[in-house]
Design brief:
Length: 224
């Protein structure tokens, strides 16, 4: 029992968003095993509403070329609106996470062009050889979107257990039409977010950034 808890604690605390990957690809049989395990995520009435598209090889290279180009031309299309504006403690946490990342990268607040350039790395999947896109059929709503969140965490922890790393990315959902078109996905499937994954480039400064968590009392109350 103690071993199980220690192993689980190690996996859940080691997982972090990785923003630089090596070009080493994941073996197809590993990919199959990982995505089979992630299927164990719970969902409302076991509907399993996630529609997952795992993209590698030539297909990922095509998107790595077309997304930055679409960004530079402002060809955005978003299924689930997101303005990135938060208030109060949520804004503080948002600012803190940006500050941790840009401090690790030695990019100051004033270096706006550098920040934008760095943000663009989202669209080359931070160099990852694989990306998974998580779609939700349009008949579903907020509860089933939560199921996709549970699926994503199951997937990220499975990747971690296999010695792999990942970064969930809302930024990838800003080009839903292009991604659907390139992957021949039905328009009734709506893109919630993408997840770049592969092996961590441990030499890259971006991966030295580590954000904290709020004290338990700020988020959780125990009632008796
Ligand atoms: C749904 C979702 C979308 C995210 N979108 C992005 C993104 O577009 N780009 C990025 O660099 N990080 C993105 N992140 C990563 C968060 O910034 C990160 O999870 C948070 O700062 C906590 O850090 P950790 O994952 O290292 O624990 C996203 C995370 C989630 C859960």
């Amino acid at each position: 029992m103690t071993d199980t808890i220690e192993t689980f604690e190690s996996i859940i605390t080691s997982r972090k968003s990785v923003r630089a990957f090596t070009d080493k690809t994941v073996e197809p049989n590993f990919l199959k095993k990982i995505f089979t395990l992630a299927q164990h995520a719970p969902s409302n009435c076991n509907t399993q509403p996630w529609q997952v598209h795992v993209v590698s090889g030539e297909a990922v290279e095509k998107l790595r070329a077309s997304l930055p180009e679409a960004m530079s031309k402002g060809k955005m299309s978003v299924d689930f609106p997101f303005d990135g504006k938060y208030n109060g403690v949520y804004k503080e946490r948002q600012n803190d996470s940006a500050s941790v990342l840009y401090t690790a990268l030695n990019i100051t607040r004033e270096q706006k062009a550098e920040r934008t350039k760095w943000f663009m790395k989202n669209y080359s999947f931070f160099g990852a050889p694989h990306v998974a896109f998580l779609f939700l059929p349009d008949s579903f709503g907020i509860r089933e979107a939560a199921d996709l969140g549970m699926y994503a965490q199951s997937l990220m922890l499975t990747l971690e257990a296999f010695g792999l790393a990942s970064c969930p990315q809302t930024s990838l959902s800003f080009f839903a039409d292009i991604i659907r078109e390139e992957l021949d996905i039905d328009p009734s499937n709506k893109l919630l977010f993408g997840l770049s994954f592969g092996y961590e480039d441990t030499d890259d400064l971006a991966n030295s950034a580590r954000v904290g968590r709020a004290p338990l009392e700020e988020t959780t109350r125990f009632h008796r």
